[in-house]
Structures are given as structure tokens and as C-alpha cells.
Amino acid sequence: MQTSTTRFQTLQEWLAWQETLHPTAIDLELERVSAVADALHLRTEVPTTVTVAGTNGKGTVATVVAALLQAMGFRVGLYTSPHLLRYNERVSVNGEPVSDDDLCRAFAAADAARGSRTLTYFEFGTLAAAWLFRENKVDFQVLEVGLGGRLDAVNVWDADVAAITSIDLDHQAWLGNDRERIGWEKAGILRPGRAAVLGEVSPPASVLREAQRLGVRLCRFGQDFMFDGSIAGGRWCWAGASADLGLDPDLTTALSGARGQNVATALAVVHLLGLEDRLDQEVLRAGLGASPPGRLQRVPGTPEWLLDVAHNPQSARELAGWLARHRVQGPVVAIVAVMADKERGPMFAALDPEIDVWVPVPIASRRALAAHELARELGALPGSRVIPANETGAAMSVAMEEAGRHGRIVVFGSFLTVQAVMERLQAAGVNTVPV
Fold it and tell me: pLDDT band for position 377 (50/70/90)?
């Protein structure tokens, strides 16, 4: 329980206050959060740190790395963002989200240490995660970058191994308008003389230049390592040597496309940590089967639901590829809502061949594109059929009627789009736990 000297008694009170404390929701600089981290002594005796940046896939890589380390018997803290249903999803210790009381205690500690400094919502959460990881005496902390890398709050800790996943256009207002500039921002998590994994075949030249400047021991997907899930049991390849992993057939089937690439990146992180010899069958099954919610997440039923937080062109192309490889007998219906600052044209162009009916819907965000404007853009697609809905429940009813028993409903466009649908599915008693 919280004491009478604590500013707030409940998690929701803390979170609501944090949203109003700092003048802007996003303020990319490290001076304030560094000072508070030092006041809390969070940068002394730091656990082994893995930091993961990238446009797409970073949540998956962080989750798989944490699951592999936990399966090896280590105590592991995992920090990810954003959350889908509960804020507690962001901070977990050994696979279990921390409690409301734990977060309130951590927020109170950060509040007491900050003095007159203001902190953003994300900065408060980052400090709370590190505080709880120290309290729980974790062996490893796995930190997912929230935005960019160079000036993201998690970058106040030095990564023992850094991972940069695929890079695409997203958050251009803060990171820049091309892959080179965005790549340079994400390369800010690299540290001189330490190791890093690059999880795409052709990373921006800016990332490679920064790694060379810092003397980083670099391991690249497609050159130093790769994963082939198309063969029976799966094959992991490292620096010319290969090993059959002996995975279950259902697991290797799931490790296709970007998922396999992200798994390979996670395995490379484990290799650079010097723990590859501990990747036995039990560890591999536990680690490679781990997935954050809302990433190509299938919810069986009639019709089937597919929940995916794709919200930029690269992730939309991956979603379209998955749909092309996993067709259903009936219509494919998309419930969609997006933020106004996203590159929507390439997203919709990639997915339009795989979608029979579009159902645009409003979501609760000031950043969201108005549903009527979204409907207009979707209506301009060749041969498209658009049925607007005025709220999530109505969108789900329309989608189920259009998809029928043999179709599929795809929910994508933002975390908030998936969140709204997932909440209603759970309220209806549908099991949405990733399997």
C-alpha cells in the first residue's frame, strides 16, 4: 500500500498526472532523464543491458531475447512500449508484468528524485522500469527504444549488445524524412568498441558509417547470420557455420518473413552475449515461441481475426505478404484506423490487393485521421469497397457480417485500433492470448 506522503494512491492517477506534467508529450533529449537516473543511482551496478531500436520488429526482438534468457535460467527485466490493454505490459520481470503497487512505488521514487525537473510520460515509465529491475535484482535488462534511439530515454544506459532492426519511414517529424537520417538517429544506441546486431540485409549507410566510426563489432543479417525456417526443424547459420535447430514444425511454419528475420536477430544477440551454447531445445521452444501481442496475432474463430499493429509502409507490406501466403476461403475484411501523420498511400496500396472490404472507424486520439477522410482515401483505391462505421462495436458487427464463417477480419493501422477491438473481443469472452 502507498503511504500518506505519496503523491497519488493509484496507477491511473499517476499516469493521468504524468500526461500533463511536461509541456510536450515527446521531448527528445537526455539531460533531464539522465539527471534523475543518477539521483536514483540507476547507472551504477547496471545489469547486462540489451537495447533494441528500429522501425519495425523491435518489440518482437526484445521479447524473444528476454524469453530466451529467461529460459536459460537468468532473471530478466523487459521494457517495451506502447502497451495494448494495460500499462503494466510495458514492464515485466521474468515474463510477468509488474503490479500496480510496484509501479506506484517506482513512480513515487522518480517523483521524489526529480526535484523541479519535469519528465514526460515515457521518461517516467523508463525510470520506473529501471528502478524495478534494480529492485528485482535482474541479471539482464532488455530495453526497447520508444522513438528513434540517440535521444530516447532508454539510451541513458550503455548497451552491452545493441540491436537495430529494419528501418523505414516513420515518425518523420522527429527523426527525419529519409532512411539515412532515421538510421543515424537509431544508430545512437551504439557504443564504442561494443557489439551490435543489424537485423536487415541492407541497412542505411549512415548506420554502417556510425558503427565503423565507433569501432563497433558488427554482425549483420544476411552476411554474418541468418535463419531458414523453410526447412524441417529450422536452420540457424552463423558466420558460415550452420546448425539444424530441430524446432517443432508448427513453430517453423510461424517463423516466416519478418518474424524469421527478427528471430534470427534475437539469436544473434544471444550469440554476442556469449550464451549460444545454452540454446538447447527447451530454451529454443520457449524463446522462439514468444511474441508480443498484436503482431500478426491470429484469433481462431468463424470468422478468424488477425490483429496486427502495422502502421507504416514496411509493416503494411509484411502484413500483405502474410495475407498472400495464408489465404482463406471467404472474404478478407479490414477494420482500420490510422494516425494522420502516417505514410498512408503506400500502406493502402500494399494491402489493397489482399482486402475485399474496408471498414474505416474512428479511434480515441487527437492524432488520428478523421474517419470520413480515411473513408475517402480508401474509396479512391482501385476496385475498393468501403463501409464506414461510426464506432468500434459497429465496425466489428459489419466486419463479421461481411466476412462470414469462412472469411477473415484484419485489424490494423495503429496500436489503438488493435486495442479497441481486442478489448471488445475479451469482453465477449474470446481468448486473445497469443499462442
Answer: very high
| Pair 164, 119 in one domain | yes
Contact between 352 and 317 (Cβ < 8 Å): no
Q: Would you state the cell numbers that stand for residue 294, as one nine-digit string? A: 498484436
Structural domains in the chain (count): 2
b/e code 324-362 from CB counts within 10 Å (16+ = b): eeeeeebbbbbbbbbbeebbbebbbebbbebbbbbbbbb
The answer to whether the beta carbons of residues 161 and 123 sit under 8 Å apart is: no
Q: 315 and 256: one domain?
A: no
Q: Are residues 343 and 240 in the same domain?
A: no
260-296 residue pLDDT tens: 889 999 999 999 999 988 998 899 989 988 989 999 9
- The verdict on 408 and 267 lying in the same domain is no
Torsion on CA atoms 121, 124, 130, 133, rounded to nearest 10: -80
Q: Which amino acid does the sequence have at 290?
A: A
Look up the pTM and report it.
Answer: 0.92
pLDDT in tens, 29-60: 899 999 999 999 999 999 999 999 998 999 99
414, 347 Cβ separation under 8 angstroms:
no
Statement to judge: residues 276 and 325 lie in one domain: no
Within this chain, do residues 105 and 229 fall inside the same structural domain, yes or no? yes
Smallest Cα–Cα separation from 240: which of 225, 219, 255, 220?
A: 225
β-pair partners for 97: 92
Structural domain contains residue 303: yes
Report d(CA 96, CA 77) in Å as an integer. 9
Owning domain of residue 324: 297-427
Which residue's entry shows cell 518482437?
60
Q: Residue 313: is the preceding peptide bond cis (ω within 30°)? A: no
